[in-house]
Amino acid sequence: MDCWSPSFIMGDEFEKLVIRMNPPRVTVDNDSSGKATLIKVDSANKRGSLLEVVQVLTDLDLIIKRAYISSDGEWFMDVFHVTDQHGNKLSKDDVAERIQQSLGPRARSFRSLRRSVGVQAATENTTIELTGRDRPGLLSEVFAVLTDLKCNVVAAEVWTHNSRMASVVYITDEATGLPIDVHDRLTKIKQLLLYVLKGDRDKRSANTAVSVGSTHKERRLHQMMYADRDYDMDDADCGSTSERSKPLVTVENCADKGYTAVNLRCPDRPKLLFDTVCTLTDMQYVVYHATVIAEGPEAYQEYYIRHMDGSPISSEAERQRVIHCLEAAIRRRTPEGIRLELCGEDRVGLLSEVTRIFRENGLSVTRAEVTTRGSQAVNVFYVTDASGHPVKSETIELVRKEIGLTILRVKDDAQSTPPRKMGDSPWVISFDLDQRSSFTTWV
């Protein structure tokens, strides 16, 4: 039951007053280090400050090489060593302003919306959230339903992990290009998508709801998969991850300091810090101190955390849960399989057609990123065969012929899980649907 006490309201208003009186101070230092730009953030402490800073740096496509975090008491001080995507120091002038806007009194807080299927109307589109049991052909069925209902998919992101799927899809009305806000139509969309998600096996995705508020897309995907308990590992999932890529997570209490120390070591990749901070925040832990080092192929992160009431982790079951949740947060963003890039003139039904071709040729989508840049569709899919194994070369040839393309180029993608065959390297395959030819985007 919710409790609206005067003390709670006064405490919340006092926190807002403190933040208004002490707006965040952000400094960008390009002189202290020869290899990276130092971004220093000082501000009155509030719930979620660390996550908001890390999210802004991530959204700016910055690579965090080192981080030193301290937020004991009413103040927090963070120092980040960052570079651009090419390993160079920053030259942008708006970094400090973007972070100050994010942390200021008008910043939008993150709210955990735990829905199996949710739909919300936004300014430019309608957002659909989906979670369910993953299976071959599921994404094709979802896009087919949306096409049949005269919905145009303008963007989407899909994650799969441990036999679960989470997706955030942005749609507009096919005829008007505007958000869909008619109640009866939204209800029909939700009902049909729920029917597809449940299939004949899934018992978890039994609810539909209209979302209230909005949140960061990748933040929301973490919340959805966490709420769906994708961290409950089964034997099959544990066996699919190689020892080389398996994260090492330890959790120990520091009795003399009253903290719980969380240490994490794994292969480095973009957005790793964002993923782990999201998980600790969703689990209702407060990070008091942290050190992050990611200057080589391996990343090291150390956190000193407590519960929101100031107490450390108190049981072995809770310790194991933290380990499993952090492992899941790292794995769920790491794609498995061959990377396919399809770029060309956007049109209604494009995704339905492409994913149908994948399904009919026995390909299963493990991750997808769909974006629209002006009139161009830029879509990325990671695929395996229906059993989760690497795709055979003859299958790729069949897909290429059916789409009608004549040129196929292959390139290693270091961010994806290495397949077991075909040269032991992930493939990057790019199709230009408009020019009926193909090209490779170098990553």
From TrEMBL:
Record-linked Gene3D superfamilies: 3.30.70.260
The entry's keywords: Repeat
PROSITE patterns, per database record: ACT
Residues annotated as transmembrane: none
Repeat is among the record's keywords: yes
Ranges of residues in domain ACT: 38-118, 127-204, 339-415
GO MF entries: amino acid binding
Function: Binds amino acids.
Name by which UniProt lists this protein: ACT domain-containing protein ACR
Organism name: Hevea brasiliensis (Para rubber tree)
